[in-house]
Every structure is written in C-alpha cells, then in structure tokens.
Amino acid sequence: MRGSSLTTIVAAVSAIAFLATCTPDETAPVERNSGVSEKLVSSAGNYLAGRQAQKSRDFGNASLFLGKALAESPSNTSLLRKTFLARLAEGDIAAAVPMAREITKRMSSAPFAKLVLLVDCVRRNDLVAADAVLADFPDRGINGFIRPILMSWVSVGKMEVIDPIQELSSLKNQSDLRVLYNLNAAFVSDVIGRTSDAEKYYKLAIQKFPASTLRAVQAYGRHLERQGKREKARLLYNTYIHENPNSVIIGPAIARLKRGQRPTLLVSTPAEGVAEALFYVAGIMTRQNSEQLALIYGYLALHLRKDLDLARMLAAGILESMDRNEDAIVEYRNIRPKSPFHWSARLRVAGNLEVLNRDDEAIDLLRKLANEDKTNPEPLISLGDLFRSNKQFTESVAAYDQAIAMISGLDKRQWMILYSRGIALERSKQWGRAELDFKRALELSPDQPYVLNYLGYSWVDQGVNLERARTMIERAVELRPDDGYIVDSLGWVLYRLRDFAGAVENLERAVELRPNDPTINDHLGDAYWRVGRYTEAQFQWRRALSLNPEEDQVAPIESKLLQGLRMSNEDE
Fold first, then answer.
1. Which of 136, 267, 378, 488 is most buried as measured by Cβ atoms within 10 A of its Cβ?
2. In angstroms, rounded to a whole number, what is the distance separating the alpha carbons of residues 527 and 508?
3. How far apart are CA 225 and CA 252, in angstroms?
4. Predicted confidence (pLDDT) per residue in 419-447, tens digit
5. Do 566 and 455 reside in the same domain of the chain?
6. Among candidates 219, 157, 164, which has minimal Cα distance to 188?
7. Cβ neighbours around 31 below 10 Å, total
8. Is residue 454 domain-shared with residue 570, that is, in the same domain?
9. Which of 384, 407, 404 is nearest to 394 (CA)?
10. What is the pTM of this model?
11. Confidence at 161, pLDDT banded by 50, 70, 90
C-alpha cells in the first residue's frame, strides 16, 4: 500500500519531564468538607490547572495559573519553584529573576535560580555582582561545566590580572568538552587581543570538531578579515559552502568580504560570550531530546543577546516539535529581516500555518516567497507539498514543475521532489510521467524504501511487472520492516501472484502495524477469503467499512460482503 509514507514521518520523541520532576509533588489529598474555604478551592483549582498546562507543555497557561496559585500561597516554596520554572520555559526571564532571588534566600541548593541570577548580572554588566554569584555557584551537573566559561567571561569584563584562558582549563582535558574549550578560548583570545592564540583555537575547533563548524567558521572568518587575511577568509567560506551547498548562512559574510568591509567580532562582550555558551548547552539538550531544558537555555541565551538568531531558530523549532505552532510562528517572525535565517524562518511560518489549517495564508506566503527569489525552489516545493496534502493534485504538479525547472542538474539530494511529483502525477491520472519520476528518483537514490514501495505497489495495482515489483517491495520491507503500508504492499503483491498463504502472513502483520487503515483491513479480508477463512474475511471487510474508507472503496467492499469474491482466476 502506498499510504501516508509519502510524507516524512517524524517519530514523536518524549522530552525529559523536567518541569514536573525538579521538585517533589507536594500536593496533599483534600478531604471533602463543606467547610473548605472558597479561597482554598480557588488556589487548588489554579494549581491543578497550572500543573495540567505544564504537562501539556503549555507554559504560558502554566505560568498564568501557577502564578495565581502562588499569589494565594506565597510561602509555598515548592509552588514558587514550579512557577519559576514555568516562567523560564515560557521565555519570561525578566519575571523569573525576582523569583530566583527569593528561591536562593530560601534554599541553599538552587542551581537554576543561581544561573538565572548570574545571567541577569551579566546582562546588566554588573560583573562584581556576577562574581559574588559565581563564588557560590554549583560545580556539578550542567552548571559545573559552564562555570569555567562564566568565570572566564566575568574575568574578561572586569579586566582582571587573572588569565581568562586559564579559567577554562578544566574543560581542556575532557574530550567531550574540548570543542567548548576551543571555541571559548578562541572567542576570549580575540576579545583580549591575543590574535595568534585566537587563530590557533579557531583552527582546532574547525578541524577536530566538525559539528561546531558553522559558528567557528563565522567567528574565524571575521577574525581573518579583521587581520587583513582576506584570501584565507575567502577560502574558508568557499570550503564551507562546498561542504554545505544548501546553507545560506555564509552568504552575508562573502558579500561583506567583496565589499571590503571590516567586520566586528562575532563575540565581543561578556554577555555575548555567555550567550554563546548557553546556546551551546541548548544544542546539547536538543540532541539529547531534553526539549524543555533546551528551550530554557535557548531563552536564557536570547535574554543576553536578542540578535542570536540561531538560538531563536532553535527555540522556534522546539516549539514546533511540541505542537505549539502559534508560539513557533511568533518566534520565527521575530527573526530580523537582515538575518540570513529570515528566509528560512518565513518558510517555517508557512509550514506552521498549514499545520494550523490556515492554508490560504500559507499559500499566499509561499507564493510571495517564490516571487521574491526566482532562483530558490523551496517555496514552490512546499507549495506542491501543501496542494498534494489537500488532494489538489493538478495544482501540486504545476508547483513541482516550476520548482524542478529551477534546479540545474538533479543529483541524489533531489530524489524527494521527483518522488513527490510522481505521487501527484499518479493521483492526477498521469501515470506515464509519474512512472518516469519514480524511476528517475531511484536512479538518483536507489535504496529509497518509499519510492521502491510506491512504484512497486502501483505496478501491482495495474497487474504489471509483478515479479520486479515483488523484488522492489521486498527490499523496501528490509529497509522499513515496521512500516505497515510497506508490509501491506508485500502482502498484496503475494496475493496478486496467488501466494495466498504468504499474503495472509504479511497482511496480518500489516494490520498489526496499522490496525485502523481501511485498505489494509480490506486486503486482509480478501486474502482470508482466498484461503477459505470466510467468517474472518467478512469481519475484516466490515471493519474496513467502519474505518471511513475512500468513497470509491465503499461499493466494492459492500459487494464482497453480499457475495464474497468470485472463485475465478481474476484477482480482486
């Protein structure tokens, strides 16, 4: 079965239940008592509403309701911490600062509260106060490995005799933190004028830690330009673009280089340095699927540096993954128009509008983007995807046609657009063109399971190339053994080849994987009938009807329920 495999399926990953587990849940059972005060009932209601909002990752309402509950019970430290964390996850750092002060008064161990106070001090450039916070700063956990960075930047800001690079030394000997060491040593060296040291650390960051390449390339390129090493900077930028051809981030740097304009440092103040460290931690948390923590660190970075668009893109992406699409749109729209991320951000706004069923707005925005840059196919590809998901296949094909016309020389990265257009062509009854697209997609990227499955299933449906279809679908199953649609295709090709026992085995597996798909249940009913399991066949057909099949599927299923399958050599 072709199924919904045409859309990229992103597995939902469960984030760490951070906000719910930072403190024990101290909610006590409440006895039924007509004497309970209205004030207490109101407070309990706000608390429960806030906790439910937290669990739903609706941090705005969590902050609202927990804040109301806290106003009724200001001495409740557990409630104070929960409200504080909700404020952070909402991105309201300013409101969290006074709460952090209160928490540190009440509790000796409050690592997050101390981090927020430190961030506030650095933001206000009150480095003496920042030093005081650092004196009692935790040296374990996440705070433990960012503490040296914080100390280094505070030292830079205070222009102390202490060597700020030496402050970072505890990171140097930990292999998993060496990238953090090299980048921050480079940033600090640049700020304090140790240009040769800065160049050394930038090179180490780029050569040994490719995951950090973008930020290091941006900073190192600026460093080279400032030192008059324009050809080295040009080579650095061109190498990055060659290795990352779809990236638009380095474009402004190349344009600046052509103008001969001397850039500022990427990181030039303690606030900017600390923001980079917090953003780095946010990236680590994202890779570990700790989305709520990542969001908080991203917002802390933005509190220090509002123009850190990478952090804003990260936060918006996390909000998207949490299905907080309206909030994601707000963050994407906050990306500065001059930012190299502005184009991508607007494209993501369109995607979120589509998720919110605001298709007209999404279409208008995508068409506007397509008209603004007639060399970039991405808006038209997204437009084709949107039309295809709405079953507007003629419009979808037209959008894909325009997009593909912009691409000179399709390579293996473009298999997806051919696959997508092939689906739209097949659904709009243009099989000849569709088949060519599927075959071309497989030439570009031979082992794409969804293309193998779609083309193979289409042949099975038409009763042609059955043995070749079987080989292709078997390969797709090897690549995606738990995809119910692909397993269904294997069952169906075996059915068409009259291996009914093999068909039953695979179709039963497909129904286990996709129990609520009407087509798969219908197929299993047919296979049961062919092996003489008539009662089970009728059960599957009835189930298929109950699962809202396509309109053109209803009559054939009803006919089978009335008279079964014809006992002939024809395959249904």
1. 488
2. 10
3. 13
4. 999 999 999 999 999 999 999 999 999 99
5. yes
6. 164
7. 7
8. yes
9. 384
10. 0.83
11. low
The residues near 300 (Cβ < 8 Å, ≥ 6 apart) are: 88, 93, 115, 116, 119, 278
For residues 1 and 489, the answer to whether their CB atoms sit within 8 Å is: yes
Cα 58 from Cα 76, distance rounded (Å): 22
What span, in angstroms and rounded, lies between the C-alpha atoms of 334 and 338?
Answer: 11
Q: Does 391 share its domain with 431? A: yes
pLDDT tens figures, 460-489: 999 999 999 999 999 999 999 999 999 999
Range list of H helices, 91-194: 93-106, 111-123, 127-135, 141-158, 164-167, 169-172, 178-191
pLDDT band at 208 (very low <50, low <70, confident <90, very high): low
Beta-carbon contacts of 374 under 8 Å, excluding residues fewer than 6 positions away, are 406
Q: CA–CA separation, 427 vs 444, rounded Å? A: 23
Q: Which domain holds residue 518?
A: 447-572
In a domain, 173, yes or no: no
Q: Is 294 helix (H, G, I), strand (E, B) or coil?
A: helix
In this structure, how many other beta carbons lie within 10 angstroms of the beta carbon of residue 174?
Answer: 11
Max Cα–Cα distance, the chain, nearest Å: 94
Which three-class secondary structure state does DSSP give residue 156? Answer: helix
C-alpha 258, offset from chain centre: 34
Asked whether the beta carbons of 178 and 209 are under 8 A apart, the reply is yes
> Which token pair is 345?
């951000």
In a domain, 487, yes or no: yes
> What CATH number is given to the structural domain containing 551?
1.25.40.10
Per the structure, how many domains does the chain have? 2
Residue 157 belongs to a domain: no
Specify whether 452 is located in the same domain as 558: yes
Residue 257 is assigned to a structural domain of this protein: no
Residue appearing with tokens 């060659």:
242
How many percent of the chain have pLDDT more than 90? Answer: 73
| Residues in contact with 208: Cβ distance below 8 Å, sequence separation at least 6, in sequence order | 178, 179, 182
Instruction: Kindly state the tokens that stand for 167.
Output: 């402050």
Alpha carbons within 13 A on the beta-carbon side of 217:
24
